[in-house]
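input
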Amino acid sequence: MLSLLLCTSGVTQVVDYAREVVNTLASDEFKGRGYVGNGDKLAADYIRNEFKEIGLKSFSKNYTQSFTTPVNTFPNKLTLKLNGKELIPGEDYLVSPGSPSVKGTFDVVKLSAADIIDSNVFKNKLANATGKFIVVEAFDRNEFTDTENTHIQNAIGFLTYHRNNPASGTVILTQNKLTWSGATSVNLKPTFTVNADAFDTEILNIEVDVKNRFHKNYKTQNLVGYVEGENTDSLIVLVAHYDHLGMMGEGAIFNGANDNASGVAMLLSMAKYYAVHKPKYTTAFIAFGAEELGILGAKYFTEHPLFELSKIKFLINFDLAGTGEEGIQVVNGSVYKNRFKRLKQINTEHQLLADVKIRGAACNSDHCMFDKKGVPNFFIYTLGGISAYHDIYDRPETLPLTAFNEYYQLMLLFIETL
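output
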């Protein structure tokens, strides 16, 4: 019966709906679904309305489970100038997510990787850095041993976190992709990571104007709904985090199309299906907040569950669902080998995805908090396609949703076997 349903025109409508969800959640209007301009709340309102429109039942008032978290933000315009040349936030540089406010014009002290490795040189340069900015020159990790690379990273950590650092801040030049994150605390010193290609002359002075705003108890939320199944003694739980990194100042929006508007699109698509086709087991749908701050929404839920965690027969976490040219990766596949084998067999029989790859346990998304409570689960993400991740280029127009239909079909077929 299910196989016949999957062959209908409804599957085409699935990707159309997924595209609508991604375009909405990852639009500039939603401000990166972070903590500047209530981006997280705008996203929660949208998901809440979709839950209601789909017809999900609620364990709580209006599908909402509220919680608070500390978070550091940058709501105002950022300025970073090197020798008077203003750089573009997000494109040319990132401010460390835990940076404090800083304003002024500063002379610089340059540090090479070799300077850092030589402890005497490092100490001498630090002694000359009072009231200045340290500029860490770009270096190739492959030119140093693992021990040396660890030493370099520890030194950079010292510049950011240690009160004995006399410098006013640090600029780290890099040839790697600029990848941002969130922070729930404020560092002692400001740090900027700058694309080395954005500035090709010797840095003589730095002008900076950054104002952070730290929220000690920012109120955010999880959204939880369900469809009652034929069997109400056990639950299938499907989850995806809806939050992303938000805005870095006024000029850089981290839209998070693949991470994780795409996972929410899969979650809502599954909810729409089961709202019409009654599932074998009661099926819960959870859109988690604050995943990017340290899996905090899932942590709160597992500590304050809205249903008994022991009733969960299986949980699937959708994160990064927007590509798929090379198939999918299944975290916990080697932990739950029989279920992984079944998933892979279904994929082969129906010739859906290019590959279903196995991976062990990894505490890298919301499923991890359920791992800690003994709940069996898979965390699945798509492979191939765009490399945009935690940067300003993860936008709806760059997200192909290449194998979304096939992924959706595989999940329905797999869940039917649970």
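quick obs: The chain has a mean pLDDT of 95.
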